[in-house]
Amino acid sequence: MEVTIVENQRLEVQKKIDKILCGKAEVESCCPVKDILARFGDKWSIYTILTLGKQEKLRFNELKSQISGVSQRMLTVTLRSLEEDGLVNRSVYPEIPPRVEYSLTPLGQGLLLQLLQLADWAKLNIDQILEARERYAHKS
Amino acid sequence: MEVTIVENQRLEVQKKIDKILCGKAEVESCCPVKDILARFGDKWSIYTILTLGKQEKLRFNELKSQISGVSQRMLTVTLRSLEEDGLVNRSVYPEIPPRVEYSLTPLGQGLLLQLLQLADWAKLNIDQILEARERYAHKS
DNA sequence: CCTTTGAGTTACCAAAAGTAACCTAGTTAT
DNA sequence: ATAACTAGGTTACTTTTGGTAACTCAAAGG
């Protein structure tokens, strides 16, 4: 189970990371990947995408109740930024009271698959992390 | 290239997400995966792990200069929390001036591999995201 | 004895997130 | 006919977090 990067892997990994982080200060609008990671690098975006993955469509208040702890304001802000990036669809039905349905775009579904992998890793390694926290708490 | 979750995949995905998010309000300390995602869900943690992936060991100021934009304070805070979670090793050499070397633990290297996949996805889909932002800016 | 050095702290200020009240406008209940 | 309810927000205000700059520590070198 122990994953270690051995030396012959390292060069490959280094090159990859260099490309991702654009270490060499590119000419124009340096490193868009950083910019994108910064976008869904906050917890509400991740939860929102995971929650939207459960159903095809979800209304605002359904999302709000399923994402425990999110405030109304932060949910709107998060959904707007995901919509701006083309990860989420927002369909407004002009009724009273209003009805708004949110769903993942194909792009958003692609990101969902990546996040599921990340979550799998988290689930697999959670015990190690909790142990490490225990150790850290005791040694200090 | 278009990734779409078809209906027969959805049930599987739903079950997976339910497990990850612990929808059914578990007895004690509900959903550790949420907790963990919240930890490296900030941008400095992601950059720090990616940067530490480039070399086996890096000293504090080397890290600071390679992670563009990070402040001294935020780097210490980020490194401490990664150390607490057992993702990063911190070795202090009792010299004057002090020398401190940081490196990824095997656990951290496992997370690095996940983040590389995420970054790959970002690189692959960046054009679509930038297009979506253009559209959003114009339509408003 | 004054400066430099690396790896931090501390104090202070700005920016982001959380809280709670308010808004809209048509439908139902009183 | 007016009051309350509805869903999906917005606005104003407070608290928490992040960023900036100055300070610390202890020994070596000038």
From TrEMBL, chains A, B:
It holds the Pfam family HxlR. Residues 31-130 form the HTH hxlR-type domain. Keywords: DNA-binding, Transcription, Transcription regulation. One of its GO terms (molecular function) is DNA binding. Transmembrane segments: none annotated. This is HxlR family transcriptional regulator. The lineage of its organism: Bacteria, Pseudomonadati, Bacteroidota, Cytophagia, Cytophagales.
